[in-house]
Amino acid sequence: MLRKSPAWIVTSALTLLSLHTAQTASAQYTISTLASSTGTTLITPHNGIAADSSGNVYAPASVPQVIVLKVNPSGSAAVVVGQTQPNAAFPGCGMVPLSIGMTDLGGTAIDTSGNLYIAQAGNGPVLRVSGGTVQCLDGGAYIGAVGIAADNAGDVWVSLGINGNVVYKISAGGAKLTVAGTGSPGCTGGAMRDPEGLAVDGAGNLYIADPGCNVVWKLPTGGGLTAFAGNGTPDFSGDGGAATSASLNEPESVAVDASGNIYIADQANNRIRKVTAGTITTIAGNGSLGYTGDGASALAATMSHPWGIAVSGTTVFFTDQTSSTPVIRQLTLHTPGDLTGNGVPDVFLQFPDGSMGVWYLNANGRQLPIAGFAFLAGPSSGISLVDVADLNGDGYPDLILRFGDGSIGVWYLGGPQHTAITGFAFISGPIQDWIPVGMADLNNDGHPDMIVQKNDGSTGVWFLGGPGGNQIQSFAQIGGPIPGWTLVGMADLNNDGHPDAVLQYSDGSVGVWYLAGAQGNQITGFALISGPSTWTVVGTADMDSDGHPDLMIRNSDGTLGVWFLGGAIGNQITAFTPITTPGNSVWKELGPH
Q1: Which end of the chain is more exposed for a tag (fewer CB within 10 A), N or C?
Q2: Mean pLDDT over each residue of the chain, to the nearest integer
Q3: Is the Cα dihedral 310, 344, 380, 404 positive or negative?
Q4: pLDDT over threshold 70, residue 94
Q5: What is the pLDDT of residues 463-474, one digit of tens each?
Q6: Is 288 in a helix, a strand, or coil?
Q7: What is the DSSP secondary-structure string of 66-115?
Q8: Nearest to residue 216, comparing CAs of 130, 354, 313, 309?
Q9: Residue 152 region by backbone torsions, left for phi larger than 0, else alpha for psi between -120 and 50, else beta
Q10: 38/18 Cα distance (integer angstroms)
């Protein structure tokens, strides 16, 4: 039964976590293994993969005959192209998919109509599987294609890798044209050294992974090859900055989602990178070689030379060689603060007697009805709920607490509904001068950090880490004294991959410090969000899944609601939705005061 007492104190599940769906710098993704090679079927790791809109993955494999597997979202695999017995028909033009033989495969692609495209690196024709029939493109010519991409108009692009150093376009009408590369190896003047994985966005721009140049190239629809990501130096650097200034190390494949975000398999760096609006970040991999981390934050995971990459919706798939048998791993975008898994952040509450609970929210567009309630903890004395954050990397929020003596700790949540307290750990002993006001992953290491503030308004950050995410690693200043201003939330308003600091003035005005830098603590600009008002900001979250963080607010009459934000730098209020009605005037916000 839903309990709505006027005496509850309110905090948003997403407060101070920079946790919106477009956020690329925090531990937004959890990692898991979708499918593994078996004793008889080997997923070939050095090939491109594709994913359709339903989340099915199409991956080259061998039994030992060359085949293409279709792996559904539950991990079950079935052969969809290729004869599993020797002496199959080759090249199989005009035949049914399960009766043909294929040579060493390069990669796969799929269009929105469900047509599957296959590049054969071993001097076989480029194939299209459509309507239950195999079609040979380019007149069945053997061109040794390595990478492949297709648009919805029937155009196909293929790369020839180190053996050709060009990219062909095979038009829907059958004409073949060289669109990128000179045929000679190089990294300047339109040349490429090893064009491999390909991806095409909705506007028709082509992206080319070139591990030989340590660059991802972009070929606009009007022509003219330019560097899109990578400075040409084989290294790892540049997260949070311009993609063209970053270092990649043998990027093998690229993928693009419906929003135009580009995903890169940064193979020799053992990382998955993402480029949003020209800014690059790491979304998976800590750089170490290995096969660990499933079920937790993708940023803390290890991987072994990720090669093929694909995306379906917000889920990213990639091939991982591991230490023994190749696998397909997936990165699942999780909404931190969402206990029910419906993609909507929930609201955490504290009663004056210290009890804690959560309101479950549903979403109907921008309407956010309260759908249920659950207790988290019974009455307690001298314990204040500061914020929620996923400290242990299990994909669900934990409760950040401050005790009467100034000590700070965390209750880890778990259980089937993620509402059971499963453990406790201290973050710090008694500290009186710095007060915790929220959590955000400022340094992009996959661990939420603790934002703290002094009475004079000075702000700083304790960088956290360790197995439980509760160990203070170091401290950095954010801003000096700012009398009258209180830090009330952290969210990446301008979508540059860095959480920004939302502030509120004593007259109710709200503004934002835009943060950046290697540790994410450098103030690069300021903008107002609203002028003086009777509303108090109590949380930050992308409540409508539009890629812009929004502000959860409480009025002096007790109404709890949401200001939806938008605009080029994310500071424009575009709409308002109430969550509760007036009459809860004894509520007060948790977190920063």
Answers
A1: N
A2: 88
A3: positive
A4: yes
A5: 999 989 999 999
A6: coil
A7: EEEEEE-TTS-EEEEES-SSSS-BSS-TTS-GGGB---SEEEEEE-TT--
A8: 309
A9: alpha
A10: 40
